[in-house]
Amino acid sequence: MKNLQDRVAVVTGASRGIGTYIAKELAKEGCHVVLAARTVPALEGLAEEIRGMGRRALPVACDVADADSRRSLVSAAVAEFGRIDILVNNAGIEVTAHFEDQDDEELDRIIRVNLIAPMQLTRLVLPGMLERKRGHIVNISSLAGKVPVPYSSPYAASKAGLIAFTEGLRAELQGTGVSASAICPGFVADAGMYADWERETGTRASFLAGTVKPERVARDVVKAIRKNRPEMLQFWLPARPTAVLAELAPGMFEKIYPIFGVKKTYEKIADRRREEKRKAQQGAAAG
Q1: pTM over 0.85
Q2: 79 CB burial (10 A radius; 0-12, 13-18, 19+)
Q3: What own/partner pairs with CB < 8 Å and gap ≥ 24 does 168-171 have?
Q4: In this structure, are residues 112 and 162 in contact, taking their beta carbons and an 8 Å threshold?
Q5: Catalytic positions
Q6: What whole-number distance in Å separates Cα of residue 3 and Cα of residue 85?
Q7: What domains lie within the chain, and their CATH numbers?
Q8: Confidence class of residue 207 from pLDDT cuts 50, 70 and 90?
Q9: Are 56 and 27 in contact (CB under 8 A)?
Q10: SS3 for the chain, per residue?
């Protein structure tokens, strides 16, 4: 989809993190943007900023984990604009913890938000796209879906599943005018989950793991749509060779992986969460 002027884009998880940057980048390229997040007030500032660019913006309250909420989002977008040309499945959650500490509800929500919700939203918008023979689905996955991520294996599994879903859907849609792309960032500076870690725990990625800017992720979303890229990776080191090595030579990758310091970064957060949970349980027992 080379021409984005006056296209209608839906961006989930738009109230914070890279979702905000993606929404603004699409508006800069000429898109009208439907902004989805769990509460509308969190979206109002962004909506005004997009309107200031001369684009239309529609904030919609949506919990992507809820089926009725997903349907209401799509209905609101179509009622306002008449169609949806681009869907950016950006909303996601990450829980960093020792796997044995995670409960059923937590595991279920990770999969529902990160994998099931993008599938279901895609299913809702796809008929209209196919009828018009135009559309693009962008799934915000993660480098965690490509390389091992300790203490966040359910999140990594959900993101690997999202990549596989994108690949299969893209193959299915060939020749229809509709396509799909996966975006796979590593640690993103100043936005989203990594920024939350840094603010709440003081934990930072090692020098070798590095970070990427959210603006780069947003630009790559636009590039993926314009150039119909199947997948784009954002990592400060050459990302493709890193991911290929992890897939083709997992034993070798496992030996060099510790130098990136990723395990230590995640372990600090997992240990902190375990300690907070222990103190909370002690407090509840004492009460």
Answers
A1: yes
A2: exposed
A3: 169/122, 169/137, 170/230
A4: no
A5: 155
A6: 11
A7: 8-286 (3.40.50.720)
A8: very low
A9: no
A10: CCCCCCCEEEEECCCCHHHHHHHHHHHHCCCEEEEEECCCHHHHHHHHHHHHCCCCEEEEECCCCCHHHHHHHHHHHHHHHCCCCEEEECCCCCCCCCHHHCCHHHHHHHHHHHHHHHHHHHHHHHHHHHHHCCEEEEEECCHHHCCCCCCCHHHHHHHHHHHHHHHHHHHHHCCCCEEEEEEEECCECCCHHHHHHHHHHCCCCCCCCCCECHHHHHHHHHHHHHHCCCEEEECCCCHHHHHHHHHHCHHHHHHHHHHHCHHHHHHHHHHHHHHHHHHHHHHHHHC
What's the burial of 192, exposed, middle or buried (CB within 10 Å: 0-12/13-18/19+)? buried
Interior CA angle at 158 toward 154 and 162, to 5°? 165
Please state the rounded mean pLDDT for residues 19-34: 98
Mean pLDDT over residues 90-119, rounded? 96
Cβ(274)–Cβ(101) below 8 Å: yes
Statement: residue 188 has pLDDT above 90: no
The residue with greater pLDDT, 263 or 118, is 118
Angstrom distance (rounded) from CA 271 to CA 188:
22
